Amino acid sequence: xxxxxxxxxxxxxxxxxxxxxxxxxxxxxxxxxxxxxxxxxxxxxxxxxxxxxxxxxxxxxxxxxxxxxxxxxxxxxxxxxxxxxxxxxxxxxxxxxxxxxxxxxxxxxxxxxxxxxxxxxxxxxxxxxxxxxxxxxxxxxxxxxxxxxxxxxxxxxxxxxxxxxxxxxxxxxxxxxxxxxxxxxxxxxxxxxxxxxxxxxxxxxxxxxxxxxxxxxxxxxxxxxxxxxxxxxxxxxxxxxxxxxxxxxxxxxxxxxxxxxxxxxxxxxxxxxxxxxxxxxxxxxxxxxxxxxxxxxxxxxxxxxxxxxxxxxxxxxxxxxxxxxxxxxxxxxxxxxxxxxxxxxxxxxxxxxxxxxxxxxxxxxxxxxxxxxxxxxxxxxxxxxxxxxxxxxxxxxxxxxxxxxxxxxxxxxxxxxxxxxxxxxxxxxxxxxxxxxxxxxxxxxxxxxxxxxxxxxxxxxxxxxxxxxxxxxxxxxxxxxxxxxxxxxxxxxxxxxxxxxxxxxxxxxxxxxxxxxxxxxxxxxxxxxxxxxxxxxxxxxxxxxxxxxxxxxxxxxxxxxxxxxxxxxxxxxxxxxxxxxxxx
Length: 584
What we know:
Distance between the termini: 62 Å
Number of domains: 3
Low-confidence stretches: none
CATH superfamily of the largest domain: P-loop containing nucleotide triphosphate hydrolases
CATH topology of the largest domain: Rossmann fold
Mean pLDDT: 88
């Protein structure tokens, strides 16, 4: 449609409207307009006829112009594009929102009185750089949201979370336990519980039919103590050190049973003479290499042996004696220096647990781990770290999380959810995270991973685990104040492209008017620079459009602001103006 023809058509409407209106008015005001005193009243009749004809023509013109207007509007509206990105509306996500008792994500920017309680079935990720308020906006509010509803494992990197939450969780009917090697804030959180990692091995000994899995579990246990060798050009030395730890662990568990302690394994590796004595006893030799008058260690007659088939026990005993004989030969033969290297690395790996604070919290287990998955009770375990002793704390958290997650996986109540909070997850390493994110869902394990810098996660866990993190997390929240160019670009790409319609005008091919042309282009829903400057967070939930989020701290939410304890580092209440009220 050209501008000239459109103008000509529009110019006819006004005079036709005047003619129609004038004739109609004249006819109506000169009654009767057809006959008067038996004769035709010509002037009103002619005006009436002209008015009717003008009205018909005017109606046709209006319909034509209306059709052209609809055509014009159709051309200037973007055609639906299923691939174009857009921000989510409340209607999009309303079916996913609960009234409470599930993870809390803040509020939508255009509906700030409605809390977003949206659950996930497997994994969730929160990326909040330093100063973004990751703790007050996400970690603490989510512990509050799940209080009294679901069991939780919480890695408390600074120790403040336990101090702030223990009273509230206890009043919510939970059993709360703290693993607190350094005794931090003990006046608030109480005495530390303890968790014996050797329970994994002794369970295999004392649970019927489980003996066939003991070598696999002891191998995983040694992997937790000695760094993974996949990137080592010569894995011979780490593998040798692992074999020392594995055999010493098995000796301690076989002899002591449920009383086996990690500290005693460390002392056995430190004491070469005692280690040699035990190896000799296992194979039935004295210290001089001759037959022992007392015979070999009666492994087959141990108390736990009756829980298994005689074939399994005999094969296990033969394996232990073969490994003991090989190690004894290595100790006293020409390759003793090789053994020295193995032992030295094993000693260094297990030394933190030989004496002191870590020895105490890896003593006899005082936490009923099975209650984590009980459908009738709710428990929370806080693993409190000492950031001033980071290297030792990292080794401890890696060992404890391995044991706890393994126990959760093996629990018979697989349908009961347990939420695992990994705060500051780049300051330690979650063993086997990639596989954990894929199989955890089937065992009711829901991982909540909190990090500051995505590039640091790539450095610690590797590119493959980083890709798995992005693909296997159903909910992803990126808090404001993002500064890393890499994460800004990643968020922008995840947001996708929106459709932009532009209208251009040019002279028509006959040179008689102006014609409109409409084109559609794409541009990022939000550029990297816009994300960097934004005061809002961005939430991705499953396959829904991205959600623009206004973070809300626990200090702005009733009743949490009054229920959460004082941060022991700040030593004063953190209370702000109420923005949101939540029904308990």
